[in-house]
Design brief:
The structure holds 3 protein chains of 3 kinds.
Chain A (H helix, E strand, L loop, with lengths): L21 H11 L9 H12 L4 H11 L3 H8 L13 E6 L2 H4 L3 H12 L13 E6 L11 E3 L2 E3 L7 H6 L3
Parallel strand pairs in A: 1-2
Antiparallel strand pairs in A: 1-3, 3-4
Helix pairs in contact in A: 2-3, 3-4
Chain B lengths: L4 E6 L2 E6 L4 H7 L23 E4 L6 E2 L10 E3 L3 H15 L16 H9 L18 E2 L4 E3 L9 H9 L5 E4 L6 E4 L12 H5 L5 E3 L12 E6 L8 E7 L2 E7 L12 H4 L15 E4 L2 E4 L2 H14 L3 E6 L5 H9 L5 E6 L7 E2 L7 E2 L7 H6 L6 H10 L2 E5 L11 E6 L11 E4 L8 E4 L5 E4 L12 H13 L7 H11 L8 H4 L6
Parallel strand pairs in B: 1-5, 16-17, 16-20, 20-21, 21-22
Antiparallel strand pairs in B: 1-2, 3-4, 3-5, 6-7, 7-10, 8-9, 11-12, 12-13, 14-15, 14-22, 18-19, 23-24
Helix pairs in contact in B: 2-3, 7-11, 8-11, 8-12
Chain C lengths: L26 H6 L4 H6 L4 H11 L11 H6 L10 E6 L9 H7 L1 H14 L4 E6 L4 H16 L7 E6 L9 H8 L23 E5 H13 L1 H6 L10 E8 L5 E6 L2 E2 H8 L9 E5 L8 E2 H5 L2 E2 L1 H6 L8 E6 L4 H15 L5 H18 L6 H12 L8 H15 L1 H9 L9
Parallel strand pairs in C: 1-2, 1-4, 2-3, 5-11
Antiparallel strand pairs in C: 5-6, 7-10, 8-9, 8-11
Classes of the chains: A alpha+beta, B alpha+beta, C alpha/beta.
Chain lengths: 173, 510, 426
């Protein structure tokens, strides 16, 4: 799921719509009361952005930086560290499949293959032509005894096998 | 509270250092350089490169010298088989993805990766050709800095400098694991006034100065200690010359002035030192025109003009001229009604937030304070007015002579401005790179600078010109060296009493 | 939904007593089961007294390091001059380990109660519970439980907050966890300073694992002697442990047994043994970062801190990964190396470059292009990567490689010599 290390900046002539307004801003306000520094609200703030927009753009990072008194470069350094933050748009449903050894010996790679076929995404990290699916391999999801765990958006599905994949995919519109 | 020393042994050498000293610094006292990359005395400790691993008796594992404080009775071994093997391991791992760029890399010859690999690295690779090296294209970070990710060893000195010293975190570490690289936000540029220091800090040729790109090889450079002339901060610098042309300015460490850094304004402020349009011979006016001649005749002409002249003398001087020259230029007019003035170009101040009392100063000249201490004042306009009716006007390397003088104009300078073509006599002098001298910075600190290249043609140091005239007109013996010139100055001006060249050395007064 | 299997008679059900009971997740339900009594009592006790009880019980950290919990708490300043913090490590990402998530999604109040007691013992007013970003269900359960318990006023002046991770195994390292809470990259810190002196936000901090804290209410309620008594062998390892068994067993899941329990019984009896027709080949007893045990070592191993060390591995997180004879050990070791390469934070040279190179060499061997010298190279690399870095992720990558080459050398040699068909590596 390698993203280009040097994403070209989007030529943005469109107006930017801030994330931290209204209710989201209120939420951030509450979060800020939990920590002695503004910086500590960074991970929660980035989650709010991703929940609102589906991914975190450079422009979003600049907004978060401004709101928390950090620099855009600093925020970017944090975003690129954590694999759950998307730095580019992904399919409507984002699928994470664990293929680390405990799940690997229980058929995880077959699950991946089945998912790539059933969703039409074909390649890891790519979005399916209908824009509905992106499938990636991830490291241990902490459900090794329930192999193979698959995270579809926020749904943590356990015990997925290659046979069960088509039904799983059908569940999501 | 008495500063008790902690005693320890490093590679068999006993040293005593203050409590809290890092082993890597204590080692310097033992004459031992512990190989390292990420550590830098001007930056917060990171402990990430793992190169400075040393063997400390009783410690179960190798410890990093940059993050370990000394303890009484500590026994440190930097050359034990374990420590050497640890360093060889780090070097090998740094080199697996590092491109064989030495033939085209600016850092070659002053590269710490080269140095330590030669010293104790593996003789051959175990990586190539079986495995491909990581590749990322070169990035332009901003006004002067290029980033070559392939060469980066992720020591994070640049990131820590911008975050902690410049206090503008515009560089980050992006991604994780062996995909990591130094990143910059797409809307960001490395245009902080002190950003150029990241190029010096980079131990390898990953961060490069566009200004210096492919200009010279490190081993071709001669170096001279100097003082930056960009402003009144008085940062200590090194002038790098190649075949007598100044090609680069770099900071020289001075813990009392600029620590390890200089600003970009000073860094780029050297091209004028190489100007080709210099006055190369003394000129005297004969039959309405300036003719080149030799020093003897030129100095005779000046002496005779001054001998006969009564009335006021006005000196218009540049604040970029040495203290010694300013002193003798004033001595010349002892007994005359005299006024001397200077003007300084002003600019915006740009502090380096993480270092106390360090900034690119508004006063863009190195010796305004020196001039003040020697009796020159700042009301340049009134001096210009006085010059109109003065008997003698001495202009010392200052191009702004916006008046027509009634009396005799003697121009002593490096280049000949249009207005000075009316001068009676023109005397060529050396610039800061071509002589020895001192400047006094805004804090009253007297600092020496040294000669980096020869002066063009027949140009001489300005202090010599005036000292010769003083000797001729007032007696008192010739002055042979800049050191002697300074001694005369120190004997005469209260503010400089007790100072001398040997005492000032490279770091200024203690 | 998960795996609420019925407890096996040989289990000692303490922490997992209420796994599978949906009602246990509510505040009311937990109180009905005797919950929050310990906390109420603890809040009336001197913090030092609470620490003493936990010390006496012999409870050791269940995150992997096995450090005595009471002793860790006692490192906090006795005289309170600055804010103190408790961080709960719910970042469970060690391959093979899946016990903390069960505690959180079945008995969230056990964790909350234990955390509050710990906070009281170390004089912390604020608790951050760092939950890995992928644990969406545990998060939801914890969020609800926290809201209910807070509303019920059980925590007194102590404030508990959930903090969501965003996908980084290294944030399970205690200093990296603190950095992550502070809004930074999850880079481990050099020590000293130690967390108890300068931790999160530079303040005295204690970090404890979920399972460790979940045991605390019971230790207080039933006493240190009771907890100590729950041990089959060594007095140094007390209480029970949730062992997460996964891989090639008939009944993978979390099994709670007392310290000193034979690993053989856990696998063949409680877990129903190998899949039909298969035999045990290897076992990693404590999460992927500990050395691999071969069959003989596995079958002779007692599950306590000292017992596993005796067999050449470590108890670690108690994530038991079982490989049967169908397993391609070279492939799985490669996959583990790849895990570490993905998760390396990039600070230390040995880890950043070493984990990636190790992975590449193993991939090469699997693809049929390996050389004889590769094994020595791997071992040399592993030696370089051990004991020389800020944290032990680097050592953790070396562990399966070293133990794998030592105990399954023939499998590597088969690939190198071309006796085994190359496999494609994704």
């Amino acid at each position: 799921m390698s993203v280009s290390a040097h994403p070209t900046p989007q030529p943005g002539t469109e107006e930017y719509h801030p994330v931290f307004v209204g209710k989201t801003l209120e939420q951030l306000g509450e979060i800020l009361t939990r920590y002695p520094t503004k910086q500590a609200a960074l991970l929660p703030a980035l989650w709010l952005v991703q929940e609102a927009r589906g991914w975190i753009s450079d422009r979003n990072m600049a907004e978060v930086a401004e709101v928390l008194g950090l620099t855009p470069a600093y925020v970017k350094g944090v975003v690129t560290f954590y694999t759950m933050y998307h730095q580019h748009p992904v399919g409507k449903h984002f699928v994470q499949v664990c293929t680390t050894s405990p799940c690997n010996v229980c058929g995880a790679e077959a699950v991946v293959k089945a998912l790539l076929d059933a969703t039409g995404a074909k390649e890891l990290g790519a979005t399916s032509p209908d824009g509905k699916w992106t499938v990636i391999e991830v490291e241990c999801l902490g459900a090794c005894g329930f192999a193979t765990p698959v995270l579809v958006d926020d749904d943590f599905v356990e015990g997925v096998s290659a046979e069960k994949v088509p039904d799983l995919v059908k569940r999501y519109k | 509270m008495a500063d008790e020393l902690v005693n320890l042994t490093i590679d068999g050498v006993p040293v005593g250092v203050p409590k809290g000293t890092l082993v890597i610094e204590a080692a310097k006292q033992a004459g031992v350089l512990v190989p390292h990359y990420c550590y830098h005395p001007g930056l917060p400790v990171a402990g990430v490169c793992r190169m400075c691993l040393v063997d400390i008796e009783k410690a179960p594992k190798l410890q990093i010298a940059c993050a370990t404080q000394v303890a009484e009775g500590m026994v440190v071994r930097t050359q034990s088989p374990q420590a050497k093997s640890g360093r060889m391991g780090v070097l090998e791992l740094l080199l697996i993805n590092h491109p064989l760029d030495c033939p085209i890399c600016d850092q070659s010859g002053e590269c710490e990766l080269q140095d330590f690999t030669f010293q104790e690295g593996r003789p051959a690779t175990r990586y190539s050709p079986d495995y491909a090296k990581r590749f990322n294209p070169v990035e332009d970070f901003g006004p002067d800095v290029l980033y070559v990710p392939n060469r980066c060893i992720l020591c994070t000195r640049c990131v820590r400098f911008m975050e902690d010293v410049a206090q503008e975190p515009v560089l980050n570490v992006s991604e994780r694991g062996d995909r990591a690289f130094i990143g910059i936000h797409s809307e960001g540029r490395l245009d902080h006034p002190w950003a150029g220091n990241v190029v010096d800090l980079c131990p390898v040729g990953s961060l490069l100065s566009k200004d210096f790109l492919h200009k010279a090889r490190a081993w071709e450079l001669d170096k001279a200690a100097s003082i930056c002339t960009g402003c009144s901060q008085g940062c200590n610098v090194t002038l790098d010359t190649r075949e007598n042309v100044v090609v680069r300015v770099r900071p020289r460490p001075n813990l009392d002035v600029n620590r390890y850094f200089i600003c970009d304004h000073g860094r780029m402020n050297y091209r004028w030192m190489n100007r080709g349009d210099r006055i190369e011979a003394p000129l005297v006016r004969r039959d309405g025109e300036l003719h080149a001649t030799d020093w003897d005749e030129a100095l005779d002409v000046v002496a005779s003009r001054l001998r006969g002249a009564g009335g006021a003398a006005v000196a218009l001087v540049s604040p970029r001229v040495s203290t010694e020259a300013l002193f003798f230029a004033r001595e010349l007019f002892r007994g005359h009604e005299w006024s001397g003035a200077f003007q300084v170009v002003m600019g915006e101040e740009a502090p380096l937030a993480g270092v106390p009392n360090l900034a690119l100063r508004a006063e863009r000249a190195p010796n305004g304070r020196g001039a003040e201490l020697l009796g020159y004042h700042r009301d340049y306009a009134s001096a210009l007015a006085a010059a109109e009716t003065a008997a003698v006007v001495l202009v010392l390397d200052e191009p702004d002579i916006a008046v027509r003088t009634a009396g005799k104009l003697v121009y002593v300078g490096t280049v000949l401005p249009e207005r000075a073509r009316d001068a009676e006599v023109v005397l060529p002098i050396a610039n800061v790179a071509e002589e020895e001298g001192t400047f006094v910075n805004r804090d009253g600190r007297v600092q020496r600078y040294f000669q980096a290249k020869p002066a063009p043609g027949m140009a001489r140091p300005a202090w010599w010109v005036f000292a010769e005239l003083v000797a001729t007109l007032q007696g008192g013996g010739h002055v042979a060296t800049a050191a002697d010139a300074f001694d005369r100055l120190a004997a005469s001006i209260e503010a400089f009493r007790g100072l001398s060249y040997p005492q000032l050395g490279f770091a200024g007064p203690r | 939904m998960g795996y609420p299997h019925k407890p096996h008679p040989k289990e000692t059900v303490v922490l997992s007593k209420h796994f599978g009971e949906a009602d246990a997740r509510t505040h009311k339900g937990w109180v009905k089961r005797g919950g929050y009594e310990s906390l109420a009592q603890a809040l009336t006790m001197e913090p030092a007294r609470v620490i003493d009880i936990v010390k006496e019980s012999g409870l050791r950290g269940r995150g992997g390091a096995g450090f005595p919990t009471g002793l860790k708490w006692s490192f906090m300043p006795k005289e309170k001059k600055k804010p103190h913090y408790l961080c709960v490590n719910a970042d469970e990402s060690e391959p093979g380990t899946f016990k903390d998530r069960e505690i959180m999604r079945w008995t969230p109040h056990a964790l909350l109660e234990g955390a509050a007691i710990a906070a009281h013992a170390i004089q912390a007013e604020v608790v951050y519970i760092y939950i890995r970003g992928e644990f969406t269900e545990p998060w939801a359960v914890m969020e609800k439980a926290l809201a209910e318990a807070t509303a019920a006023g059980v925590f007194g002046v102590i404030k508990l907050y959930l903090h969501r991770g965003a996908g980084a195994y290294i944030c399970g390292e205690e200093t990296a966890l603190m950095n992550s809470i502070e809004g930074k990259r999850g880079n481990p810190r050099i020590k000293p300073p130690f967390p108890a002196a300068a931790g999160v936000f530079g303040m005295p901090t204690t970090i404890n694992n979920v399972e460790t804290l979940a045991a605390v209410p019971l230790v207080l309620k039933k006493g240190a002697a009771w907890y100590k008594g729950l041990s089959l062998s060594s007095p140094k390892s007390t209480g029970t442990k949730l062992f997460s068994v996964c891989g090639h067993v008939q009944k993978p899941g979390n099994y709670e047994v007392t310290m000193g329990f034979p690993l053989k019984d856990l696998l063949y009896d409680l877990c129903g043994g190998m899949p039909p027709g298969r035999t045990l080949k290897a076992c990693i007893p404590g999460g992927s970062s500990v050395p691999i045990l071969n069959r003989e070592e596995t079958e002779g191993c007692l599950l306590d801190y000292e017992g596993v060390v005796e067999k050449g591995s470590m108890l670690g997180s108690g994530g038991v990964i079982v490989f049967d004879d169908s397993t391609d050990m070279v492939y799985q070791i490669m996959r583990l190396a790849r895990f570490y390469a993905h998760e390396s934070c990039a600070q230390c040279t040995q880890c950043r470059e070493g984990t990636a190179w190790t992975t590449k060499i193993l991939e090469r061997i699997l693809s049929g292009q390996g050389k004889t010298a590769d094994l020595d190279l791997l071992l040399d690399l592993a030696d370089n990567m051990t004991g020389k870095t800020i944290c032990v992720l680097s050592d953790s990558c070396a562990a399966p490689v070293v133990s794998g080459i030592k105990k399954f050398k023939k499998e590597f040699e088969d690939y190198i010599a071309g006796r085994r068909k190359p496999v494609s590596v994704a």
